[in-house]
Amino acid sequence: MRAALLQIAVRPDEPVAERRTRVAGLVRAQHTADLVLLPELWTVGAFAFDTFREQAEPLDGPTARAMGEAAAAARVWLHAGSIIERGPGDTLYNTSLVFAPDGTPHRTYRKIHRFGFDRGEATLLARGDETVTAVLDVPGTAGPTAGPTAGPTAGPTAGLTAGLATCYDLRFPEQFRLLVDAGAELFLVPAGWPAARRAHWSLLARARAVESQAYVLACGTAGTHAGVEQAGHSVVVDPWGEVLAEAGPGEETLVVDLDPTLVAKTRAEFPALRDRVLGVPAPR
To answer: By its UniProt entry, which Pfam families does this protein fall under (predicted)?
Structure first.
């Protein structure tokens, strides 16, 4: 399975419509990949809070249309990063979009953990309320599947099961445990991570891979927007915690070949997940 991570520079001097067109062209060029991953909020910028409501769009808005067409042109699975979704009742969400190789919408995921504490995203956007997996049917692979929310696996079928998370979610291992229980074999994590905490970004990506014995594909933004320098350094980590590829700070494309059988092999050779102890009483 070949994956391409497109680390997009979000520049304040580039209009959103122009960046959307440019990124669609980059996706179309990835016709040798099986899976393409974009960063979080690459249209507007993860820290451009003042523009969230102005740039919000529905799930069938201009970004979704452009990305669906690009996925179909390249014949790839496309995780198109996230948008500011204008949901029911004018509620705003940070929503990820996944498209099938024919360009049709496959899954959406509304970010559960919103960053900012008492300001920014945490106060402007509503919280998602379900963990989400996406079954990626890639030629030559087979594995367990799961439904759109966490729960028991439904049985073997063609495809790899990807767990969806976004940026700040990376700090909360409970979410990734639920995704593992739902059958996740790799995690797709778009982000707009700040350069000031780049060391955390790399550490957390490796930690989620090791503890879950799964691939982590973490794709961030480059450049500076809303006065916040972005970390870049998108990374691909294998189920043993080895870094297979890592970008620098600028706009860059990472292309990595993944072995879909490595997850099952790792979990069989070092079966730590079966030793989990659930329901440990809280300390008194």
So the answer is: CN_hydrolase (PF00795)
Amino acid found at 77: W
At 174, give phi and psi (nearest 5°): -60, -40
Of 40, 57, 85, 121, the active-site residue reads 40
| Count of positions (residues) in the chain | 284
Q: How far is CA 245 from CA 161, 170, 176, 231, in A?
A: 21, 18, 22, 15
27-36 pLDDT, tens per residue?
999 999 999 9
Structure tokens at 141: 């692979």
* Helices then strands, each counted (H, E), the chain: 7, 16
**Sequence-distant (≥ 6) Cβ neighbours of residue 162 within 8 angstroms:** 79, 133, 134, 135, 136, 184, 185, 186, 187, 188
- Using alpha carbons only, what angle is made at residue 163 by residues 63 and 124, rounded to the nearest 5 degrees? 50
Least confident of 43-52, 140-149, 263-272: 140-149
CATH superfamily of 2-275: Carbon-nitrogen hydrolase (3.60.110.10)
**Residue 258 exposed, middle or buried by CB count within 10 Å (0-12, 13-18, 19+):** buried
Task: Work out the end-to-end distance of the chain between its first and last CA atoms, rounded to an integer number of angstroms.
Answer: 48
The string of pLDDT tens digits covering residues 53-97 is 999 999 999 999 999 999 999 999 999 999 999 999 999 999 999
- Mark whether 219 is an active-site residue: no
Choose, from 57, 85, 121, 167, the residue flagged as catalytic: 167
Of 111, 121, 185, 219, which one is the catalytic site residue? 111
Please indicate whether residue 265 is annotated as part of the active site.
Answer: no
